[in-house]
Write a structure and sequence with these properties.
The longest helix is centred in the first third of the chain and has 24 residues. The protein contains 11 helices and 8 strands.
Length: 288
């Protein structure tokens, strides 16, 4: 593939990322493929083909998955009827909602009524890609028997790495919008390693590094990394703040790419989500 063709592919994948982020953000709105396609100046057919090639399913399938995930969270609470939940998550047909629910969860919706869901925690694992839900591995880890603590060791978190593609845009996001301080900036051009961190955490660092600089990866692996970053599936950062709404308002005012407004999640946190300039997902939780 020629260099111009590769650049066009990355631009196309970034468009698909924006479409997917809009579905994540506006799943309860009356979205359809035509509306999503107009947003990125594509035909509906071309968008569907590009989206399926990038994420393995159609935009409609992804939209319905998100709606069913939210519906499961609402139904677990037990204070809404199925009809109310159906319309609240953006579905206009109770029949379509029930059919899709059964396909994704693996059990007919009627079998779970009228009482609240008692065993959907296990069923939820079958819904692919539930944003933010604990993975099976995390669940197993949290329930494992505690191990003996090690003595004689002094280990703390020092630095973590996150890829970037545009040093100046990254500085504008992490320094100017998030308020991190710059502790080190080495290299030149796009090959810069920028170390940032929260002012009140001087011993914890985030290193923004060029993803293709590692000499141990192949050209094919570099292309794969670049495509995953463009798709928004390569890396994620979790942050916390004492005032989520103020942080979100600042990000909106600064023109950040919004994925999710502040939301109370069914797994016990209130958070929002944005993209950094490289396409990495940045989730910010309310500190409690």
């Amino acid at each position: 593939m020629s260099a111009p063709a590769r650049e066009q592919r990355l631009r196309d994948l970034a468009l698909m990322r924006r479409v997917r982020d809009r579905i994540d953000r506006d799943y309860a709105q009356p979205l359809d493929v035509e509306a999503l396609a107009r947003d990125v100046h594509m035909s509906a057919g071309h968008l569907s083909r590009q989206f399926r090639a990038a994420y393995g399913e159609s935009p409609y399938s992804y939209l319905m998955t998100r709606r069913i995930e939210r519906a499961m969270a609402l139904l677990r609470r037990g204070d809404r009827s199925v009809t109310e939940v159906c319309f609240e998550v953006g579905c206009s047909s109770l029949g379509t909602f029930s059919t899709r629910f059964a396909e994704l969860v693996g059990v007919p919706l009627a079998e779970r009524l009228p009482g609240p869901c008692r065993d959907w925690g296990a069923r939820a694992a079958g819904v692919r890609g539930q944003a933010g839900d604990p993975t099976g591995q995390e669940s197993r880890s949290s329930s494992a028997a505690p191990t003996s603590s090690l003595t004689g060791m002094d280990i703390t978190l020092h630095s973590s790495f996150l890829p970037h593609t545009d040093p100046e845009a990254s500085l504008a996001f992490y320094r100017d919008l998030l308020g991190f301080e710059v502790r080190l900036d080495v290299g030149q051009g796009t090959m810069r390693w920028i170390t940032v961190g929260a002012p009140d955490q001087p011993d914890v660092n985030l290193v923004l590094d060029p993803p293709g600089a590692n000499p141990g990866i192949t050209d094919e692996e570099r292309r794969t990394i670049a495509e995953m970053m463009a798709k928004g599936t390569y890396a994620m950062l979790l942050l916390a703040t004492s005032d989520l709404d103020a942080a979100f308002d600042r990000l909106v005012a600064g023109g950040a790419e919004i994925v999710q407004e502040p939301t109370e999640q069914p797994y016990g946190v209130r958070d929002c989500a944005v993209r950094d300039p490289a396409g990495n997902l940045v989730r910010i939780q309310q500190r409690r």
